[in-house]
Every structure is written in structure tokens, then in C-alpha cells.
């Protein structure tokens, strides 16, 4: 672990030194045009292309004819630069307008065929060489209605410079962007090498952009499969935004692959929106990686100006939101520095994965800072963003793989520990289960006995009074028609006094068995105490209750007591209350049935009566 941290610290220091080089040691070209002429005598085409920098002649508000050569004359325009305050041309030229540039190159080696690389020029151009149109982007015009903007780099193939001279005329117009003019260096070199480098750079950008989009899709799909961790989602969206920006800017490989491109206005919107949404996704990813070091609330606060910027880019014309490039650049730099600070804090606190995150962020951060300075014409070199993104991708991929291996090893170790613990637990559980099984059986028997004692009358096997009342309460929620029979055995006290309590118990026992025998499974039968019984007949009306009462009276005539043959003619008084549960309360049913039973008692017993 210490080696990883030391590697990350060393890499970060190296990248800081490279960043310092961007500020103070940016390369200076030995050859530069002076007063509209560039002497290529000391240039070796085999080594590197020749930047066409320096003092070009400029004719402001003029579009010189391409087939008529005009000897370069003052005023001079220091290339590359733009027509605004931030360009080296100063206030002499506003951001919008049109102009013609001329440059004469002398002493070109005659044994080569040449090509010229033209980086994107804001916002339309035509390039003539020795009176011949060799490249154009958009449509150059002297008014906004006729002018058309374009995007992307261009390559113009020339022939051989037989006389060693090349006369260039560059027409530029801008009515769409806040800043106009050639803000990057044109360069000339041998045709074969320039064509090879051009398409190699395009394929390289296509590879980087496609890799970013592919990684984004995989990370987003991983989040869809497992939504517990937002790290993959934010990193995927961040990679998607950067991949889109790479794919449509510079060499625009996505346009090349699809053989189609967006209208310039929408191209600029998408370029700026992808640039301004990236910091929000970047900070969200850092917060998901290190939630203890960066709060979600802080990310939300910092994201506000970027969200506002995205809205402005979506709603305003390009001329207006391109004026905010300087402000956008400052915001980007601040986010990069904030991200560095959070990751360094996580590194000091030994957070998991912090070294590789810092490595990738350092490469990407230096590249972003370099290209922001390059876009604002504070540096003179090529773009670094693609290389920074490549290092970033490799670092984060390595970090993901490392975390997955670490998690897999943790899972294997925990699985082994869990397996051993399970085996010991199973042994203990088996012993304990045997003991508990014996106790459970004894407890179940005791519970069953308690349940019977609590709910069942021991003499008759019917529900006791408490259980019967509880059943009526529970059934009172059902909207069904019922008949409640309240039964009292006639002259039961005489049976006890004449034949003894044993004979009385036998009468009660046989009477309870008879009720169970003639009743239905859905009915409820209970002994309320002494010689009083109750039957609750479900789904029963008055006719059904009469039928059941008569069956009960007939069955009582068949009762036979072997030990007491003299004991016969056992009768009962029955009160009946019919109602509907859910509408009539169970208390009123009991009260009405009891009153009807006493009416039968007063009228001679051995009969039934409805309430």
C-alpha cells in the first residue's frame, strides 16, 4: 500500500512540474514571419512541420480576390490571434467582421510536395495558394446573412514549390462567434507526412472518444444492474460528456465516422454544454468516491453556476454565450483545483482508491489547465486533453480492477471465515436443537392442555362461556344472518336432588354430545354454566331455527341413562333470537334469546319461542 501511495505522490509531483512547464517553458518556434514574409531557408521538413506564425499582412473589411496577388503590406497582424481584446491584435479589430491575410513564404525546399494544416478558424475561411483555392470552411461573406460558420480542422494538399515560393491569401469572416479570426497556428509540411499525421490524429481522437463512450455505457449499465453505488453512474456520465466533446471538436471524428454533422449553432451548444456539465458530473463522482471528505450539499452549491451556464448555452444564441468563455474557463480551473484538494485530503486520510484517482485526475487536470490556457491564447503548443483523458481512463480502469480484486479477496476471506463459523454453529445448534426439541414437545403438550382448559368445558366438550362470547364477538364482523338458541334444561335441580350430582353430570354430558352430533360444522355450541347452553347457527333464518329446535326436542326424547333407568323425559326451554351479524350487536341477540327462553319457562317449559 505504501508503494502505491509513494507512486501516486511521485506522479503528482511530476505532473505539477509539467504544468509549470506549460506556464513558463512553452516551446518557442525559431522561424517566424516578419512583415508578411516567412523565410524557410533554415527549416528542415524532415523534422517537423513549419508553423506559419508571425506578422501577416491584414486588409480589414476587405476580401481580396484569390487570383490577384498583392504584395504584403502594413498593417501587420501577429498570427495566431483573434479580433477581440484577448487577442494580440488588441482593440483595432472587433470580434465580428471580415478580413484578408497575406503571407509570402520563400526558400521552400523544392523536392517536396506540401500540405497545409488549418486548425478551426472562427468562423469561416477560404485559403488560396499561388492564386488557387486549396481549402475552405463554411462560407466567407461580407455580411451576416450570407456568411455560414463551420467547425473542425482542415487539411489542404499542395503541389511542389518549384520556385521555392508560396503566396498565401487567407479570407476570414465571422458573424456568429463572439471572437473571430485564426486563433491557432497554421502549419506546412511534406504532403505524405502531413496527411499521415492528420488521419492518425483523427483516428486517435476517434479511438479516445469511442473508448470514452463505450466506458460510459458499460458504467451506466453497471449502475442499472446495481443501483446501490453511484460512483459508476457519475463516472460514466462524466466520460460520456467528455467523449461527446472530443468526438465533435478538433478533428470531429464522430462527424467523420457518421458522414454527417450538426448545424453550427447546435454544434456550439453541444460543445459548450458538454464542457460545462462535466464539472458537475466530475464533482459528483469525486463525492461518490469520497463521501466523508466532500459533502453532497457542497457539490450542489458548487454546481449552481454550471447549471446556470448550461441553461444559458441552451437558450442564448452562440454569439452571446461564447462571450462567457473566459468566465467558464475560470470556473473550470476552480473545479479542477477543488477536486485536487478533495482527493489530496482523501489520500492523506488513506481512503481506498485515492492514489489511482489522484494519478488519473492529475493527468486530466494538467491537460485541462493546459488546453484552457491554450484556448485563451496564453500558451503556444498543441492540445493535451486527449492524452490526459487516456491517462485518466487507464488510471480509473486500473482503480476499478484493483477495487474489484480487493473486494473479491475480501469476499473469499469472509466466505472462508463464515464457512468455519457456520460449521461450529451447526454443531452447537444441533446439540441445542435436541435439547430444545424435548422442551418444545413438553411445552406444546402443556399449551394444548391449557388451550383446552381455557376454551372448552371439560364435562360436555363444548365451548365454555368465555370462549363462546369471544366467538360471537369475532363473528359479529361478518354480515350473515344467524339464529341464537338459548337453552335451559327443565327441572335440572330436581334431577340433582332426586338422583344425585353424578346423574346430573351424566345428563349434562349426554346433552352436550347430542348438541355436537346434530349441529353443523359451521355452528358454534357452548355451555354457559350449570344447565344453560347456547347455539349460534350461521346462515340460518326463522324457518331453519324452528327446524333445528324441533330436531333438538326429538333428540332429547332418545336420551337414555343406563345407571338411572327411572331418569327420563328430559326436556328443555329454548329461546330463539334471529338477526344479522354486523347490523345487530351480539349483546342484543343474547339478551333477546335469554328473554324468550324465560318466556317459555313461565309458560310451562318444554318448548321454544322467538324473541
Question: Overview of this structure, please?
Answer:
The chain is of the alpha+beta class and 611 residues long. The chain has three domains: 2-26 and 199-409, Rhopdopsin 7-helix transmembrane proteins (Up-down Bundle), CATH 1.20.1070; 37-196, Jelly Rolls; 465-610, 2-Layer Sandwich (Alpha-Beta Plaits), CATH 3.30.70.270. The chain has 15 helices and 16 strands. The protein has helices spanning 2-24, 191-225, 231-248, 253-258, 264-289, 296-315, 318-321, 325-348, 354-375, 385-455, 465-475, 492-499, 501-518, 542-556, 586-602, and strands at 37-39, 50-51, 54-60, 76-79, 97-106, 113-118, 124-129, 132-137, 154-160, 166-174, 187-190, 481-489, 524-529, 532-538, 572-580, 607-610. The strands form three sheets. Strands 1, 3, 4, 5, 7, 8 and 10 form a seven-stranded mixed beta sheet that branches. Strands 13-14-12-15-16 form a five-stranded mixed beta sheet, sandwiched between helices. Helix 1 packs parallel to helix 9, helix 5 packs antiparallel against helix 6 (296-315) and helix 13 crosses helix 14.
Spatial extent as radius of gyration? 49 Å
CATH class of the largest domain: Mainly Alpha
Q: Can you count the helices?
A: 15
- End-to-end distance, in Å? 91 Å
Largest sheet: 7 strands, mixed
* Fraction of residues in β-strands: 15-25%
Tell me the helix content.
Answer: 40-55%
Q: Please state the structural category.
A: alpha+beta
Give the overall form: rod-shaped
What would CATH call the architecture of the largest domain?
Up-down Bundle
Chain-averaged pLDDT: 84
Low-pLDDT runs of 5+ residues are: 1-5, 7-29
Number of domains: 3
Keywords: Coiled coil, Membrane, Nucleotidyltransferase, Signal, Transferase, Transmembrane, Transmembrane helix
Pfam families: 7TMR-DISM_7TM, GGDEF
Protein name: diguanylate cyclase
Catalytic activity: 2 GTP = 3',3'-c-di-GMP + 2 diphosphate
Amino acid at each position: 500500500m505504501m508503494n502505491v501511495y509513494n507512486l501516486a505522490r511521485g506522479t503528482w509531483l511530476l505532473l505539477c512540474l509539467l504544468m509549470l512547464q506549460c506556464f513558463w517553458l512553452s516551446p518557442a518556434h525559431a522561424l517566424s514571419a516578419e512583415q508578411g514574409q516567412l523565410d524557410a531557408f533554415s527549416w528542415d521538413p524532415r523534422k517537423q512541420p513549419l508553423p506559419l506564425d508571425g506578422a501577416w499582412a491584414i486588409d480589414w473589411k476587405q476580401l481580396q480576390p484569390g487570383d490577384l496577388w498583392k504584395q504584403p503590406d502594413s498593417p501587420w497582424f501577429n498570427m495566431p490571434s483573434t479580433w477581440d481584446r484577448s487577442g494580440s491584435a488588441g482593440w483595432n479589430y472587433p470580434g465580428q467582421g471580415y478580413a484578408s491575410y497575406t503571407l509570402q513564404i520563400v526558400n521552400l525546399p523544392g523536392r517536396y510536395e506540401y500540405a497545409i494544416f488549418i486548425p478551426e478558424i472562427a468562423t469561416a475561411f477560404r485559403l488560396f495558394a499561388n492564386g488557387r483555392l486549396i481549402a475552405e470552411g463554411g462560407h466567407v461573406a461580407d455580411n451576416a446573412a450570407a456568411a455560414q460558420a463551420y467547425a473542425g480542422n482542415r487539411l489542404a494538399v499542395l503541389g511542389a514549390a518549384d520556385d521555392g515560393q508560396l503566396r498565401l491569401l487567407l479570407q476570414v469572416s465571422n458573424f456568429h462567434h463572439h471572437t473571430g479570426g485564426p486563433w491557432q497556428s497554421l502549419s506546412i509540411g511534406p504532403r505524405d507526412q502531413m496527411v499521415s499525421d492528420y488521419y492518425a490524429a483523427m483516428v486517435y481522437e476517434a479511438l479516445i472518444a469511442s473508448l470514452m463512450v463505450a466506458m460510459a455505457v458499460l458504467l451506466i449499465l453497471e449502475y442499472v444492474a446495481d443501483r446501490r453505488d453511484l460512483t459508476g453512474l457519475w463516472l460514466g456520465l462524466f466520460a460520456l460528456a467528455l467523449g461527446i466533446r472530443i468526438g465533435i471538436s478538433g478533428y470531429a471524428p464522430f462527424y467523420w465516422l457518421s458522414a454527417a454533422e450538426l448545424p453550427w449553432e447546435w454544434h456550439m451548444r453541444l460543445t459548450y454544454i458538454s464542457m460545462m456539465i462535466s464539472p458537475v458530473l466530475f464533482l459528483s463522482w469525486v463525492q461518490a468516491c469520497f463521501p466523508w471528505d466532500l459533502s453532497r450539499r457542497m457539490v450542489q452549491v458548487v454546481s449552481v453556476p454550471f447549471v446556470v451556464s448550461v441553461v444559458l448555452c441552451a437558450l442564448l444564441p452562440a454569439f452571446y454565450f461564447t462571450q462567457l468563455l473566459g468566465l467558464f474557463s475560470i470556473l473550470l480551473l476552480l473545479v479542477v483545483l477543488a477536486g485536487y484538494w478533495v482527493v489530496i485530503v482523501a489520500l492523506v486520510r488513506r481512503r481506498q482508491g485515492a492514489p489511482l484517482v489522484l494519478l488519473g485526475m492529475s493527468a486530466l487536470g494538467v491537460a485541462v489547465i493546459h488546453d484552457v490556457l491554450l484556448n485563451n491564447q496564453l500558451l503556444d503548443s498543441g492540445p493535451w486533453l486527449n492524452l490526459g483523458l487516456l491517462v485518466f481512463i487507464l488510471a480509473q480502469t486500473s482503480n476499478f480492477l484493483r477495487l474489484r480484486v480487493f473486494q473479491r479477496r475480501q469476499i473469499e476471506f469472509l466466505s472462508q471465515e463464515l464457512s468455519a463459523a457456520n460449521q461450529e454453529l451447526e454443531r452447537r445448534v444441533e446439540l441445542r436443537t435436541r435439547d430444545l426439541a424435548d422442551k418444545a414437545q413438553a411445552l406444546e403438550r402443556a399449551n394444548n392442555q391449557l388451550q383446552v382448559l381455557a376454551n372448552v368445558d371439560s364435562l360436555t366438550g363444548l365451548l365454555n362461556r368465555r370462549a363462546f362470547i369471544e366467538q360471537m364477538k369475532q363473528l359479529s364482523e361478518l354480515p350473515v344472518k344467524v339464529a341464537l338458541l338459548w337453552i335451559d334444561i327443565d327441572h335440572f335441580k330436581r334431577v340433582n336432588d332426586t338422583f344425585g350430582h353424578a346423574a346430573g353430570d351424566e345428563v349434562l354430558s349426554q346433552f352436550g354430545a347430542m348438541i355436537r352430533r346434530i349441529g353443523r360444522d359451521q355452528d358454534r355450541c357452548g355451555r354457559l354454566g350449570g344447565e344453560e347452553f347456547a347455539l349460534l347457527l350461521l346462515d340460518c333464518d326463522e324457518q331453519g331455527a324452528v327446524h333445528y329446535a324441533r330436531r333438538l326436542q326429538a333428540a332429547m326424547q332418545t336420551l337414555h341413562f343406563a345407571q338411572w333407568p327411572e331418569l327420563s323425559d328430559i326436556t328443555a326451554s329454548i329461546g330463539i333470537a334471529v338477526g344479522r351479524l354486523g347490523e345487530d350487536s351480539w349483546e342484543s341477540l343474547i339478551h333477546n334469546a335469554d328473554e324468550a327462553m324465560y318466556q317459555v319457562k313461565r309458560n310451562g317449559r318444554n318448548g321454544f319461542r322467538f324473541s
